[in-house]
Batch of 3 targets.
Target 1
Amino acid sequence: MDLRVLQNFLLVAETLNFRRASEQAFIAQPALSRQIQQLEEQLGATLFNRTKRSVTLTPAGVYFRSEAERLVNGFRQSCRRTAEIHRGEAGEIRIGHATSAMQSILPRLLVKIHAQRPGLKVYLNEVSNKEQLDLLTNRDLDVGFAPNIVVPPDMDSRVVYEEPFVLILPENHPLTPDTFTSLAQVANEEFVLPPRPVGAGYVETLFALCREAGFVPRIAYESAHTGSVQRLVEAGLGVSIEPRSTLRGQNLRIRAIELTNALYQVEMTAVWLRDRTAELAPFFALLDGVLPTDGRFPVHESSEDQAKFAS
């Protein structure tokens, strides 16, 4: 089995037609058929159901297609990066992030990169914890920034900063910072929270905060997008719990109460594939230069504060 065989398999899997696949691969159809048969023999699995009228993927073929795509894409990326290193080019970094990361660590980091590595191309992708893990596994991201994420065994991580959670209420809610004593005071409220399947640890932390106060939150609406959550709270459709940094720059009719004595805090975590640690070392050197010395970010940060981290 070699890369060419994997590429030819993917052509057949895409076209579901041996003749068209052989034309695209510039190989005779009988030779392509033999390649696929030999591949199936090596794997000990049937990849295609073949009849005179159709070709379809078997369940094993569907699985192997996703794995082959990951391998081929990873090889192409490695070749591209090798050529960039040879030419002395800066390359690229693909960053996945939660909303709160863009309100805290990422602007500082991007200023630093622009100042010290101006040729480095940065691609940003705002996605959920679960999506970040999937994209990292498929090598479609280089590093992710996710809050309170559960990290798989094949990945490494580091907490880059901590911040408090805040209880978010409609502006006219009777509960105020002066009258607030515990989350138990909103036990009978309806909540707006992210769906559990996309949280990968984050949503479990929110539920743990509520359980600590003696209740399980009743979910009225679910959204993985911070902006949507805050809009729903503003409309009076529920209350929510968010990282404090998500309040930066917003001008909504909502009230926020900091959960200063809560059992859990927001832990913004950098996540990456363990086998890429050495490759990502220059990136983490830049990241180290913008982290707060006490591990916490202020609620408000001026443009002057951000600019100084470029030096």
Target 2
Amino acid sequence: MKLRFPVLILLSGIVVALVACGDKSSLREDHPIKPIREYERMIVGRLDADYIGNTACLEKCHAHDKIFKDFNESVHSSQVDAASGLPLVNCESCHGPGSIAVQNVREDQPCDYKSLLDIENLPAMAQSLICVKCHSAVSTPTLQFWNASTHNLNEVSCFDCHELHKGPQQKVSREETADLCFKCHQELEMEFNNFSHHPVPEGKLACSDCHNPHGTANDKMLLGVTAKATCTKCHMEYQGPFVYEHADVTEDCINCHKPHGSPNEPLLQVAQPFLCMQCHVAHTEHDHAFDSTTHKQAYFNRCTDCHSMIHGTDIPSFSGRGDFLAR
């Protein structure tokens, strides 16, 4: 009986699997992925170096006194183990063990920086892992979406936003948030310069009021489940539900508004009446609801001059039909 070609392939695969499973000890052996081991070494530092503490690191070096003083005033330096009295975070927590770096320090021989972690030249994700190795536990609510976040996947590291040697304030303040975000999001800075914009440049609103820079499960790293849920945290009068609703408004505010800024008041994607005319047929002089002698081409006015409750209302319109959203 002649076997078909696909059957031969299946049988050969079974034979190979049986041969591989013949030596059961091989299944229990450790087969490390070498690139990952090398990646771990990049974060851990020199394996032949020892941890010696801040005092031993800095006793012969005065170049970093100002940096160390600022770090001592920070929240990281204040993390102390109650049992041992030792700091939980010190210089070596980020820079790696320092015994080799200082063993030959003299007046004519500076610190051997090459034995420490080359943080500036590490890949962005490796830089973030230096922080995440501690913060994955203590900052779970904030960082639970970090690994899959837009920032992490686009090689933005913790050090791009946080300055650990700055002093007591290591978080980005509300006043600094916009300037920090605009370094990368320059197109949004241009939108905020439009005539109609949310008051971010004025400091009354911060990017983090709507977005979580560490990532969320929502689109655009929004704090709300949807754009409307985010917007109605402040604009609660448009939240609804209404008896008479505007269908587009119940879906997404961004159908009509540009959230950061627009040349059209109020933050409209397109000026009235042309925004409304994208979905609705405009009134004409032949419309039975208009007197052609007095209301000819009245649709060149703003639609909201008549349809004032455009987001929704519980009150019927003047004609008794609530779908006009007139009041």
Target 3
Amino acid sequence: MTIIKKAVIAAAGRGTRFLPVVKSYPKELVPILAKPNIQYLVEENIGAGITEIAIVTRVGETAIERYFSPDPELEKYLIENNKTAYLDSLKEIWSKAKITFIPQPVELPYGNGSPIIAAKDFIGSDPFVYMFGDDLTVEPKPGTFLSKMIATFDKYQPDGVIAVKDVGREEICRYGSAQYVEDPKYPHRISAMLEKLPADQAPSTFGQGGRFVLSNKYVETLLNQKTGLGNELWLADAVNTLAKTSVVLTEALEDESDWMTTGDPLRWLKANIAVALLDPSLKDDLKEFFKQNI
């Protein structure tokens, strides 16, 4: 049995699609309703049994660390004004997980593979969960889908399990698309994850989501990997390297779990609406607003 207790969250990007607001704070702190995007990721990890979480940030960026750190002055004010419930969600995080903050060295190339290299000492020889900081899993119970991915990793012992979603032909050009291979022993095995191809060239409509369960082989693979498309260090290239010699599987989002990217204003807005519709205190008012205004 493989016990996975570590997760790495990538939060070192510039978030240029959210300028000018992210000039003053990282895009991962842009809120989804009353909590920043990244808090949902931390809660998702905790829901799946992860107890050690590393957040990889830009050098010099301390806002995320400050957010997840206790603030005695604020807590004193909330106690005095009988408003302590506003910090309950953060107190639960502090009681259930240890969060480590790792600055991504400036000499590393830009790209979604570099945070794994930055976190190599944290990862050590262990398998780990990897998350893109501007992606969201929308589900009634946080960690449900991630737990399913971890169970698949434990059952088949591959070098990776990658979250995918059937995004359709119109959207697949925005994502890496899964290229499947028939294997009776390993369901949903892939031979490659091909980045941002035109719809008529994509091998499937299953787009790569922002959730991965990976063996520590990915650290060494990325350390020896050259930059690719756009001179970036792509995790998908490491996936393709390992898929040639070992087993890499996908897990498709379905049922009540959904994956949404929040990396641009339109998709961020859609994510806010999706999360609000799961909240019984907001759902009816929101539906009535749409009924009257759309």
